[in-house]
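Hi R.,

As promised on Friday, here is the backbone we talked about, encoded as structure tokens. Could you run it through your design pipeline when you get a chance and send me back a sequence?
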């Protein structure tokens, strides 16, 4: 058959629905080749996407850029939120370190799986830490506090900008110090800055983010401080504020004895005792009888302390010249406006567990003047010996003597120089080991009684103390203090009232400026926080 004939035949057969096997085979081969090419192309794209995703994940591009929270239209990445989260969390741990087990916080376990107990809520409230809720995850508590701080910083920054409160040289110094501290601290632990930032704030943190958020925080703090510094009050305004609530500032000079009316829950052998209502009633009746006997002895001329000593098993004596107002039975009685010097009473405690024998002497505010003082602290070097080592006590005594000698040398250096307050301040900045005052000339202002250690306090409040007085005092815990008495300041009650007014004003100012600044969380971005 000729070629042309063969072709015509194929065409005819094709038109009838028949398919040449050769044609089918070739078409199939072409189709499989195409499918293979497409498959390899898809696999190549998938591998490329996986590789890109791995690179993106390792470089933290997502958590560094994805939005975790939004405040008034301003977006914050997970890394930026982490700055506030970790700062709050670390500060919280530092302030509550001794109580972590009591509040049930395990730093070695996931914070998302630990909930806050009612005990923790009460303890945190007593420490001035608010916002915790029973049953709330610890992680959510820290997130909420972090976002509150972040929102507050933004509000303060925007308010500062609106009022023309600009960045200052002093703020720049604070920022430079913070960055220098970062570098120094990282180096001291053998880390680079970036390694240290990652260690503290997580892998999302960069120096740029740290610097920017530190800058914003410094500006917010400076703006709020500037408002606080602008607040002043006249004596008449302070008197009026005191008169509105004298119990908030008055203290009572008194004596009292607490006589327990509790029933022991164990016997002399340590066995548990089932306490009945009759036993409780009898114990309280005995406590009342004891309290009346103590009061009778006092009124007959025996001191209250000696009268209480006769019943030391259940009675405890207390003397106070600064008893503060409270809503207990004893507190309410002490602060009754009708109370007169010499008043006495037997009072049942609010919870029905004891009786008090109360003696009222006087009530009043702190009219004494606070003081301003400079000091230079010299601490003995720590011994490298243990208490069991031979020569331990001698080494401690030698180091203590060396510290005392150094304090005397510094005072002598001051006396040989200009012997002025300014020259004392210069020496304090140079020599003092007190981090709280060795950058401001050793100055403490408006010091009130009981604020400093006993020896420091007694030297400052010696009735014979005069401006310009100097001396050296020693405290076993702190070391040697070279003292310079600057002079007397405002009465302490005025300081107390001023602090209350300032705190209330600043709280109101802050609430006004931050109103409406609420953070909206992004679930995708927030998973990279903490």
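Update: got your reply. Pasting your designed sequence below so it's all in one thread:
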């Amino acid at each position: 058959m000729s070629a042309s004939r063969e072709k015509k035949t194929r065409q005819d057969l094709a038109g009838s629905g028949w398919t040449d096997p050769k044609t089918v085979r070739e078409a199939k081969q072409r189709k499989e080749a195409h499918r293979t090419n497409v498959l390899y192309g898809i696999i190549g794209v998938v591998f490329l996407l996986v590789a890109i995703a791995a690179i993106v994940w390792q470089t933290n591009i997502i958590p560094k850029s994805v939005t975790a929270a939004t405040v008034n239209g301003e977006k914050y990445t997970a890394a930026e939120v982490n700055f506030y989260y970790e700062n709050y969390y670390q500060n919280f741990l530092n302030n509550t370190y001794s109580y972590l087990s009591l509040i049930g916080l395990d730093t070695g376990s996931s914070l998302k799986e630990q909930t806050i107990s009612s005990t923790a809520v009460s303890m945190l409230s007593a420490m001035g830490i608010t916002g915790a809720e029973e049953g709330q995850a610890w992680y959510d508590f820290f997130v909420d506090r972090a976002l509150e701080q972040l929102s507050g910083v933004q509000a303060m920054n925007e308010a500062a900008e609106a009022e023309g409160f600009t960045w200052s040289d002093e703020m720049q110094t604070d920022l430079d110090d913070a960055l220098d501290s970062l570098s120094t601290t990282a180096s001291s632990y053998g880390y680079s800055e970036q390694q240290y930032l990652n260690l503290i704030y997580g892998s999302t943190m960069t120096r740029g983010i740290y610097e920017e958020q530190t800058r914003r925080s410094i500006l917010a703090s400076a703006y709020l401080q500037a408002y606080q510094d602008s607040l002043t009050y006249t004596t008449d305004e302070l008197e009026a504020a005191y008169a509105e609530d004298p119990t908030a500032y008055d203290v009572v000079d008194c004596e009292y004895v607490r006589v327990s009316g509790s029933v022991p829950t164990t016997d002399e052998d340590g066995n548990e005792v089932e306490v009945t209502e009759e036993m409780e009633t009898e114990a309280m009746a005995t406590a009342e009888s004891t309290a009346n006997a103590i009061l009778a002895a006092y009124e007959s001329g025996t001191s209250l302390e000696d009268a209480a000593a006769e019943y030391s098993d259940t009675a405890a004596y207390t003397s106070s010249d600064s008893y503060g107002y409270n809503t207990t039975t004893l507190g309410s009685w002490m602060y009754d406006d009708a109370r007169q010097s010499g008043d006495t009473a037997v009072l049942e405690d609010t919870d029905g567990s004891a009786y008090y024998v109360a003696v009222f002497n006087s009530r009043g505010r702190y009219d004494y003047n606070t003081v301003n003082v400079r000091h230079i602290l010299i601490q003995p070097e720590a011994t490298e010996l243990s208490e069991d080592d031979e020569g331990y006590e001698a080494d401690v005594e030698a180091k203590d003597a060396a510290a005392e000698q150094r304090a005397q040398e510094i005072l002598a250096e001051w006396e040989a120089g200009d012997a002025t307050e300014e020259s004392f301040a210069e020496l304090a900045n140079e020599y003092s080991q007190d981090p709280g005052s060795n950058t401001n000339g050793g100055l403490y202002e408006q010091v009130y009684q009981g604020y400093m250690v006993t020896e420091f306090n007694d030297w400052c409040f010696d009735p014979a103390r005069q401006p310009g007085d100097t001396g050296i005092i020693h405290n076993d815990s702190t070391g040697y203090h070279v003292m310079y008495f600057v002079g007397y300041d405002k009465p302490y009650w005025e300081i107390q009232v001023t602090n209350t007014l300032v705190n209330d004003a600043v709280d109101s100012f802050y609430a006004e400026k931050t109103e409406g600044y609420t953070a909206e969380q992004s679930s995708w971005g927030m998973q990279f926080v903490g």
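One thing I noticed while checking it: The chain is about 55% helix and 15% strand.

Thanks again,
M.
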